[in-house]
Amino acid sequence: MPFHVKDANLLKGLEPGAKVEFTLLVDRGSSWIEQLRTVEFWSPERDPEQARRLGLIESIIGRSTANQLKVGQSVPDFSLPDQNNRPVRLSEFAGEVVAMNFVYTRCPLPDYCFRLSNNLAQLQKRFRAQLGKDLILLTITFDPVHDTPAAMLKYSRIWNADLKAWHFLTGPRGEVERVCNLFGVAAWQDEGILTHSLHTAIIDRKGKLAANIEGNSYTVKQLGDLVDAIIRR
Fold first, then answer.
1. At what angle are helices 113-126 and 220-232 packed, to 10 degrees?
2. 106 FRET partner, CA 20 to 30 A, in 148, 159, 169, 212?
């Protein structure tokens, strides 16, 4: 899960693997870190709880990438219930381009899940005439325990989603994890919130993975242009 800094000087002297502490600041549109400081010496062997947490994180990340699809591979079919508790199967959209993101509705950082959902909302605006014909949008939760169909329906209203073409999916935890793992999505509980990776995936008309964009640093226009190119193939 990436964090942003406003002052690049904070990163001077940092080495990969260093343990750091920082203050996370959040406003309505973004989040960033300040007061970044390196912990001079730290050994997980001296802190069993930290060692357990690191082991758990490594295990989760390992599971999420073990079966991750590569660009060009066919995406296996899956079925998850939507915001109306209606089963939605990926194969329903054969012949259409599918743009999908992975979120949890309680995410407190506006430039993470909220930004990814806003990106799909902007796709909805740009491709409104092609929705349901050439383009389908999917938002999949990785927190199905809290993100029930009712919660996903409430979340869809934030975006004024056209629910004929933009589906908000949840389901049994095991099946949700299986789908998330296909795209390398990892999430774990960390001090009351979910720490998670950020992925936006695009599936082409033939059901193959056309793109799996990690992070949130791309622009809405870049995403839209990519979707447009895939639709036009």
1. 50
2. 212
